[in-house]
Amino acid sequence: LLKVLSRIDSILRSSRAPPLIFRPSNKGPVQNSIKENGQGCGFEHLPLTIEMWADQLIALKDLHRSLRKLSLELLPWNTKDPQENRESIRVEDLQLIVDAILEELEHKEKNSQTQSVQALSAIVSHFQKLFDVNSLNGVYPRMNEVYIKLEEMTNAMRNLHELLELDSSAPPTVVVDTVGKLCDIINKNVTEQVQQLLGTQDIHSIINKLEEHECFFPPFQALIQDLLCLLEISNVDDILPAVQNLK
């Protein structure tokens, strides 16, 4: 038993032992630690240390179980655990799981960066096709131009919604239909006003009156011009007084 205890004590005192384990106050050799009264042999710290190691081994198994759950979440295809049939778990086993997880995360990050670059390149190419941009240098100016045009159109649509008393959620088709109806109403009113002005409700009569006016007005205009030149006046209103003076 003394040899076993001495062996354990030498392990505890070695440089490979964890730095936080319990250390006895007696630093002498085992043979010098035996007291004269026969009570105590210098190994009183061993039970505490061994209990601590036992707790750490149990915690190591719990940590291994947690890492396995994490591994199954991140690496669902890697269902086999080479350490699952072992009674004892080593730190190296845990390190293998951690390394596998880190490698997979790095691989996903690289793939994500590659996909991001490809996605951005596809977006830029699509923008060039949509807005007829021949070079990458023209992308930013065209973006600014599109943004300005979009703002102008948005403001115009907002103003039309307010003027036409439409709901702000009304689509552009509703706005166009409403404007078209207003134009029809205005055109109808203009037609009615022209009909009232010309004293006829028949479109053919309106055409005839316009044709008569076209036939009559040029000769009448030429006659007026001749009278102005003959009477040496410049105002049409002066024609009648000038003719009366000639009597």
Automatic annotation (TrEMBL):
Biological processes annotated in GO: cilium assembly; regulation of microtubule cytoskeleton organization
Subcellular localization, as worded in the UniProt entry: Cytoplasm, Cytoskeleton, Microtubule organizing center, Centrosome
Record-level GO cellular component terms: centrosome
Keyword list, A-Z: Coiled coil, Cytoplasm, Cytoskeleton, TPR repeat
MF-aspect GO terms: gamma-tubulin binding
UniProt-listed SUPFAM superfamilies: ARM repeat
InterPro entries: ARM-type_fold (IPR016024), CEP70 (IPR037692)
Summary of subunit composition and partner proteins: Directly interacts with tubulin-gamma; this interaction determines centrosomal localization.
Known role: Plays a role in the organization of both preexisting and nascent microtubules in interphase cells. During mitosis, required for the organization and orientation of the mitotic spindle.
Protein's name in the database: Centrosomal protein of 70 kDa
Record organism: Poecile atricapillus (Black-capped chickadee)
Gene that specifies this protein: Cep70_0
